[in-house]
Specification:
about 20% strand, six-stranded antiparallel β-sheet, FAD, flavin adenine dinucleotide binding, FAD/NAD-bd_sf, about 575 residues, FAD/NAD(P)-binding domain, about 25% helix, nine-stranded mixed β-sheet
């Protein structure tokens, strides 16, 4: 029997980027908020002198314990779904700040095309360009409507970037709050090669601060030290924007936020078409608590948002046979194939210094920035060179013909440790009728609740895109004049290993039609107006970018809507 606690005005489930932004905006406006975080507390001091590649990058110190809760995966409905028992394809964070702690800091805005993808595709190419079974849909909001929230998020986080407007991306109302990061010799080589081929490179927008910065809330942070321990690590300097050094201190300073860590929410309570609170487990003791609330805000990771709605029987589950239902619909991942690799015999680089978002990229083949008329795919990829800092345990570059073990392997990887560059991609992934999330009928977590099941595979659309994009990365790499070039120009079937990207999206998608979306553009559930569901679970497809910048903008818009709801109630339009 759960212990019933006193009712609160607002409860937030998950204290990562979305939860932190909502908490800051609501508490600044005077509202009392309880924030529930399934993992333990985290702060900058936890990472002092913590450059431990084994502990964090390879043994997943900041990640969810898969022995207690995981996901199951199958490539299609004809095969059995099995649990992910060790980390591979993606990493699910655990603890205060969520994935905002271990992210690398690359911070893009989705393109104007993304938000109106169905309308713009049909307008340019006609309905027949969209393959049968591909569930493209507009987001129910335009880039121009979302632009002020992008700007607000970037000023809060101190995103670093070039002052000049790049013509391949959405128009900005203001420059980035801080200038671009340092340009290394290898970045200069990439940009010169790209421009020579007629492309439009720009420095990657970065949440690793390029200079000391104080944001509009008065939060002061120091510049990046280029230590290379960003991705899978917490930042010991506070230079990488994360919720614990930006929005959460602002919320706590108001005195209106109570954070409860080790509070794993297992159920959303509801009655008469309203959310009435949540039930959570104190993970160290196993005690259950019922937390009643006037407003419930879900800001967990994609999989947890979907799973909690399904196990709590909120919203109509998606049915891939009929295409009806919304919870679990439009799951999408990210396509990372098409990379080109250069090995240099006569040139050396300092590749062990870097930062998660240090690099340059171009969008000439992203979104609909190029003509798809005679191509067998839609959308595209961001093409980039990054110098994130190659750590010594995992970085063992060698040409394909090199033995994978023994004396020759060791000699070759030592030779190329600082003589290896890559031009990489981050491709869009579009939704299909047969790609979805639901509850596994067999496997359960430690509380006896069904695990979430992924049904997903790469499609011909993805393979064609990788083949096309690889031609562009190879051309750039060759222009960078290595001694040897290799290209990864094919993908076959998706597997849950090895690591590819943590950019999972969809399952509780936004839109303007309740029959094909779960939330409106304020992230308010169509069927339950006091329940808001935020995060990348709201994305109807995934773009050729990291999702965090768009997630942050949508969170600021949702905060505005929630504040309106707290005053007036009812559906937001």
């Amino acid at each position: 029997m759960a212990t019933k606690l006193p009712k609160v005005p607002v409860v937030i489930v998950g204290m990562g980027w979305s939860g932190g932004i909502i908490a800051a905006e609501l508490t600044k406006a005077g509202h009392k908020v309880v924030g529930l975080e399934r993992g333990k507390s985290r702060k900058t001091e936890d990472y002092y002198m913590s450059h431990d590649e084994l502990r964090y990058a390879l043994r997943y110190e900041l990640m969810q314990d898969l022995s207690k809760e995981t996901v199951t995966f199958r490539s299609n409905e004809k095969v059995r779904s099995l649990p992910m028992r060790s980390y591979g394809s993606f990493l699910m964070a655990d603890g205060l700040g969520g994935a905002g702690i271990h992210w690398n800091g690359q911070n893009y805005r989705f393109l104007p095309y993304d938000f109106e993808i169905r309308s713009k595709t049909i307008e340019r190419y006609g309905k027949n360009k969209i393959p049968e079974g591909m569930q493209l849909q507009d987001w129910g909001i335009t880039y121009d409507q979302l632009e002020p929230y992008f700007d607000k998020y970037e000023k809060m986080a101190g995103i670093s970037g070039e002052k000049e407007q790049n013509k391949m991306v959405g128009t900005r109302s203001a420059p980035f709050p801080t200038g671009p990061m340092k340009k290394t010799p290898a970045i200069t080589m990439f940009e010169e090669a790209s421009r020579k081929l007629g492309f439009n490179p720009y420095m990657i927008p970065s949440a690793n601060l390029s200079e000391n910065y104080t944001n509009p809330d008065g939060i002061a942070r120091a510049a990046c030290q280029y230590c290379s321990f960003c991705d899978r690590f917490g930042c010991e300097y506070g230079a990488k924007a994360d919720p614990t050094v930006t929005v959460l201190p602002v919320a706590e300073k108001t005195g209106n936020l109570e954070i409860r860590t080790n509070a794993n929410v297992i159920k959303i309570l509801h009655s008469g078409g309203k959310a009435t609170g949540v039930v959570y487990v104190n993970t160290p003791t196993g005690e259950e608590f019922e937390q009643p609330a006037d407003v419930v805000i879900m800001t967990s990771y994609v999989f947890n948002n979907v799973r909690l709605l399904l196990t709590s029987k909120i919203g109509k589950p998606y049915d891939p046979t009929t295409g009806s239902g919304v919870i679990g619909r439009n799951y999408a991942y990210q396509i990372t194939g098409g990379n080109a690799f250069g090995f240099y015999d006569d040139q050396e680089f300092n590749l062990y210094a870097g930062a998660g978002a240090l690099g340059s990229c171009f969008d000439d083949f992203n979104g609909d920035n190029f003509d798809h008329t005679n191509l067998k795919f839609l959308h595209g990829a961001n093409i980039r060179f990054t110098q994130a800092g190659l750590r010594p345990v995992a970085h063992n570059p060698a040409p394909k013909e090199t033995p994978r073990w023994g004396k020759e392997f060791k000699q070759t990887t030592i030779k190329y440790a600082n003589r290896f560059l890559s031009v990489s991609t981050q491709g869009a992934n579009l939704p299909w009728k047969h790609h979805y999330l639901d509850l596994d009928p067999t496997y359960k977590d430690i509380y006896g609740l069904p695990l979430l099941r992924l049904t997903y595979d790469f499609e011909d659309q993805d393979r064609e895109m990788v083949k096309y994009i690889s031609e562009k990365t190879t051309a750039v790499m060759k222009e960078m004049k290595p001694s040897k070039v290799e290209t990864s120009n094919t993908i076959s079937t998706y597997n849950i290993v090895p690591y590819q990207s943590t950019h999972n999206t969809g399952g509780v998608i936004m839109g303007s039609d309740p029959s094909t979306s779960a939330v409106n553009n304020y992230m308010q559930m169509w069927d339950m107006d006091n329940l808001f569901v935020l995060g990348a679970s709201a994305f109807p497809h995934n773009s050729g970018y990291n999702p965090t910048g768009t997630l942050g903008a949508l969170s600021y818009r949702a905060a505005e809507g929630i504040l309106t709801y707290l005053k007036k109630g009812g559906p937001l339009v």
